[in-house]
Write a structure and sequence with these properties.
Order of helices and strands: HEEEHHEHEHHHHHHHHH
Largest sheet: 5 strands, mixed
Number of helices: 13
Strand order of the largest sheet: 1-2-3-4-5
Radius of gyration: 24 Å
Distance between the termini: 28 Å
Helix content: 55-70%
Number of strands: 5
Structural class: alpha/beta
Shape: elongated
């Protein structure tokens, strides 16, 4: 399983946008640049606090969960160790809920740990002045903000499609004898049908090159005109492609079937992450990502004996 990987600052910005969309003026965000956030990313005026956290080492359930537990421990300790500072931030507000917003969590032990820490904070004596009579710790993902996510990533008048002019045939001819064309040929040639038919191999290579250049143009326009959608697309592609070399290296028959499976997976992910994109554009970008990987990655597929 390839786990979703967010940059910490990117996740924080994403969460702030979702919270602001839902709570508007009823939530206070806390800047961390000067003196840190003190264990609070934001708090609502009704006593609910938020901390946004994307683990850097989320490549397995175990490492992800360990980092998330450590984050809960560290930030609650900040609140308890600096009661005067926390009270200065909150004023008369008393916290009854502290929420960790994280990209994903997959272990029940994290929920159990949150329950345990809730009881511990509840039993601290004397009670911290910032704590309400009851206190709970919750863990959520941005799936709790489905409507806001749709607005955030779908802020276009209709499903977005980006048409790119036809790729000139000169691109194919110029790439045929280059390192770019050679890498594509080498990877596609593990398919016995393609390896035995040079003309068919050339057609497939040219199509990959066309897909690559079309996708480049689409991504450039997306980044320029729809930066929020671009960020969602770019993150999805990086998440999947970051471990693709290792994944394919272990596959005995990495032919067209593997590529089409990858395209379907990327397309589904893009449609979920960026609902403002048309299904056609999602599939085109998915094929672009595969073509880009075929061109850039030096890995050679293993031919089946």
């Amino acid at each position: 399983m390839i786990r979703e990987q967010w940059d910490g600052g990117e996740w924080e910005e994403h969460c702030r946008r979702l919270l602001a969309m839902r709570y508007d003026s009823k939530i206070q965000f806390i800047p961390a640049r000067d003196g840190g956030d003190g264990g609070l990313e934001a708090f609502r005026l009704d006593g609910v606090a938020y901390q946004c956290y994307a683990p850097e080492d989320s490549f397995s359930v175990e490492s992800q969960t360990k980092s998330q537990k450590k984050k809960i421990y560290t930030d609650l300790k900040k609140l308890c160790d600096d009661v005067p500072g926390t009270c200065r931030l909150l004023g008369e507000i008393r916290l009854h809920t502290w929420i960790l917003m994280t990209p994903q969590f997959d272990s029940r032990t994290l929920v159990e740990y949150a329950r345990k820490k809730s009881r511990e904070i509840q039993e601290v004596t004397p009670a911290p002045l910032w704590r309400a009579d009851s206190f709970e710790i919750l863990i959520i993902t941005d799936e709790e903000f489905a409507a806001e996510r749709t607005r955030l990533f779908g802020e276009v008048d209709a499903r977005l499609n980006i048409d790119i002019p036809h790729i000139d045939d000169s691109y194919y001819a110029s790439a045929a004898g280059t390192e770019m064309g050679g890498r594509i040929d080498a990877k596609l040639s593990v398919d016995q049908v393609l390896a035995s038919d040079p003309e068919f191999l050339a057609e497939c290579r040219n199509e990959m090159i066309a897909v690559f250049f079309r996708g480049q143009g689409q991504m450039e326009m997306l980044q320029r005109d729809y930066p929020t959608l671009y960020q969602a697309v770019d993150r999805r592609l990086k998440n999947v492609l970051s471990t693709l070399t290792m994944t394919v290296a272990g596959i005995r028959e990495p032919g067209f079937e593997v590529m089409t499976t990858l395209v379907r997976r990327l397309t589904d992910g893009l449609q979920a992450d960026a609902p403002g994109l048309s299904s056609v554009l999602c599939e085109q970008i998915a094929w672009y990502a595969v073509a880009d990987w075929l061109i850039r990655c030096p890995l050679k597929f293993r031919r089946v004996a």
